[in-house]
């Protein structure tokens, strides 16, 4: 059996741990099933995929992913002021993650930042925007994608 390097048209199975600058674990597969994806299919942002290229089964890596290559920088335009009345029966609380409908009818998560009178400040930036992340991986399997 050939040890294939990770590249286009390869299916990759790996364990990963994603950490913040201070070592706080954001996400990990270590306690559960490993992640499997097709390299280049868009499931992983390019900033996470690019460092994996060339790794083989059994190899590990620890990569620092800057905000530009992870979830982007904080964008002040993604912080919106909404009216308390817009929340209907829901009572927003600071720190609460709420789901809002975007212009295309999809769901957009937002974090309630502040509440003053009838004004609610909601941050629609990705929770990891502006953060430098550490991406630890252990490659378990690399196989060519087979078309059925």
Automatic annotation (TrEMBL):
The chain positions of domain PPIase FKBP-type read 9-75
Q: Which PROSITE patterns does the record associate with it?
A: FKBP_PPIASE (PS50059)
Q: Name one GO molecular function term.
A: peptidyl-prolyl cis-trans isomerase activity
One of the Pfam families matching this protein, by short name: FKBP_C
Q: Which reaction does it catalyse?
A: [protein]-peptidylproline (omega=180) = [protein]-peptidylproline (omega=0)
Output the Gene3D superfamilies linked to this UniProt entry: 2.40.10.330, 3.10.50.40
Which keywords does the record carry? Isomerase, Rotamase
Keyword Calcium (UniProt): no
What EC number(s) are associated with this protein in UniProt?
A: 5.2.1.8
Lineage top rank: taxon: Bacteria
Q: In which family does this protein belong, per the annotation? A: Belongs to the FKBP-type PPIase family.
What is the protein's name according to its record?
Peptidyl-prolyl cis-trans isomerase
């Amino acid at each position: 059996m050939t040890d294939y390097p990770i590249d286009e048209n390869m299916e990759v199975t790996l364990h990963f741990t994603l950490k913040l600058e201070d070592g706080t674990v954001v996400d990990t597969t270590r306690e559960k099933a490993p992640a499997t994806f097709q390299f280049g299919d868009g499931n992983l942002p390019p900033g996470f995929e690019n460092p994996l290229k060339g790794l083989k089964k059994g190899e590990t890596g620890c990569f620092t992913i800057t905000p530009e290559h992870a979830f982007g920088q904080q964008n002040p335009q993604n912080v919106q002021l909404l009216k308390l009345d817009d929340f209907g029966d829901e009572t927003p609380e600071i720190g609460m993650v709420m789901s809002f409908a975007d212009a295309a009818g999809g769901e957009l998560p937002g974090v309630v930042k502040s509440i003053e009178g009838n004004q609610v400040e909601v941050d629609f930036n990705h929770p990891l925007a502006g953060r430098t992340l550490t991406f630890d991986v252990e490659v378990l399997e690399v196989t060519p994608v087979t078309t059925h």
